[in-house]
UniProtKB/TrEMBL annotation:
Keywords: ATP-binding, Hydrolase, Iron, Iron-sulfur, Metal-binding, Nucleotide-binding. Pfam families: FeS_assembly_P, ParA. CDD domains: Mrp_NBP35 (cd02037). InterPro entries: FSCA_dom_sf, MIP18-like, Mrp-like_CS, Mrp/NBP35_ATP-bd, NUBPL-like, P-loop_NTPase, YlxH/NBP35. Belongs to the Mrp/NBP35 ATP-binding proteins family. In the C-terminal section; belongs to the Mrp/NBP35 ATP-binding proteins family. Homodimer. Binds and transfers iron-sulfur (Fe-S) clusters to target apoproteins. Can hydrolyze ATP. It comes from Saprospira grandis (strain Lewin). Residues 5-75 form the MIP18 family-like domain. One of its GO terms (molecular function) is ATP binding. This is Iron-sulfur cluster carrier protein. ATP binds at residues 104-111.
Length: 364
């Protein structure tokens, strides 16, 4: 009688891919499983860059798994190496890292963190740009004091291109430069996708180490379009400390972690972590509770990139076009610089440990 294939598959589920921790059946590493009365044969698909020691131990683990259910069976494994898929050619090859700044809900300070993070990275010597992808409520023009500014259009080989507007040494683009913020339109589907694509393709971005993307809150069309348009290096999540916002934040974060999206979470910034009155700079009042940032970092297996206090100067700076990191208050400045340093570190770790993110290919 033929050896039972189902039993063999179940046994092989005990063998895990050491890299992902997933079992080799779910990871689709086993192909063309054939059995007869005595023999079991299959192909084992292993990445070309896997070292030979790991390949051998996986091979032995497969044989042992089959023999655990059929001790007499002869196991023939054909190891096939798969070429690691290279990332598709980028439409913005001059940009090394694309960092999405996201939050579960609105008003947690995502735009404030995006801009100050961009300026912090710049202060550390990187070439940085910022894209305000919050097409529904663009706030970058106000935060940079660039209301009513319009980007220049430059003709490049007969094609009109948008020139990002530079302020404080960083080029930026925002829907708010194109339409009045109060006209923020409800764009959906293809039109919205077109605008986000234009922000990459039709903008004259210079050579950049980091492009920071300020996303709208939650999970929606912009997020989806972004991951379908470019390879996002990683996401920074912004949250406030209270636990009630955690469920939203987790939802926002999980969108990046969907298996076919697979954008690494670089870490969490806890904004409005405590209130510090200007006249009592050493006092901390935890008015929104404590622990939300840490908790979210734990949920995502990532790290807390930093905590930003709730201080009046941050709000005023945002309204007056003078980002908080540039003002003289050392506590605020250091809080944002710390976030920038930690982000830099996490991007370096991510780029060391993982291949480039693949763009999401969704057929609609
Ligand atoms: N740490 C802080 N201290 C004081 N005010 C802050 C702080 N962070 C953000 N704010 C203020 O809170 C308001 C909302 O911040 P911001 O626009 O950055 O949030 P957001 O999450 O991007 O909002 P939206 O969802 O509307 O895009 C702004 O007025 C901003 O200046």
């Amino acid at each position: 009688m033929e050896l039972n294939k189902q039993k063999i598959i179940e046994a092989l589920r005990e063998v895990k891919d050491p890299k992902s921790g997933e079992d080799i059946i779910s990871a689709r590493m086993v192909e063309q499983l054939e059995t007869d009365e005595q023999n079991v044969s299959f192909s084992l698909l292993l990445p070309a860059n896997m070292d030979s020691g790991t390949k051998n131990s996986l091979n032995f683990a497969c044989i042992a798994a089959v023999n655990s259910v059929f001790p007499e069976a002869e196991v023939h494994i054909h190891v096939k190496t798969t070429v690691v898929q290279t990332a598709p050619t980028s439409i913005v090859p001059q940009i090394k890292n694309i960092i999405a700044v996201a939050s579960g809900k609105g008003g947690v300070g995502k735009s404030t963190v995006s801009l100050n993070l961009a300026l912090g990275l710049k202060a550390l010597g990187a070439r940085v740009g910022i894209m305000d992808a919050d097409v529904y409520g663009p706030s970058l023009p106000t935060m940079l004091g660039l209301q009513k500014q319009r980007p220049r259009i430059k003709d490049v080989d007969g094609q009109p291109k948008i020139v990002p507007i530079e302020k404080y040494g960083i080029p930026s683009i925002s829907m708010g430069y194109i339409i009045e913020p109060e006209q923020a339109v409800v764009l959906r589907g293809p039109r919205l996708a077109g605008i986000i694509k234009q922000f990459f393709q039709d903008c004259l971005w210079p050579e950049l180490d980091y492009l920071i993307i300020d996303l709208p809150p939650g999970t929606g069309d912009v997020q989806l379009t972004l991951v379908q348009t470019v390879a996002v290096t990683g996401a920074v999540m912004v949250t406030t400390p209270q636990e009630v916002s955690l469920a939203d934040a987790v939802k926002g974060m999980n969108m990046f972690r969907l298996p076919n999206v697979n954008v690494p979470i670089l870490g969490v910034v806890e904004n409005m972590a405590w209130f510090t009155p200007a006249e009592l700079p050493n006092n901390k009042y935890y008015i929104f509770g404590q622990g939300g940032g840490k908790q979210l970092a734990k949920e995502s297996n990532s790290v807390l990139l930093g905590q930003i206090p709730l201080v009046q100067a941050i709000r005023e700076g945002g309204d007056n076009g003078l980002p908080a990191i540039l003002n003289e208050d050392p506590i605020t400045k250091e809080a944002f610089m710390n976030v920038a340093r930690q982000t830099l570190r996490q991007v370096a770790i991510r780029n060391e440990a993982m291949p480039p993110t693949s763009m999401v290919n969704v057929q609609s």
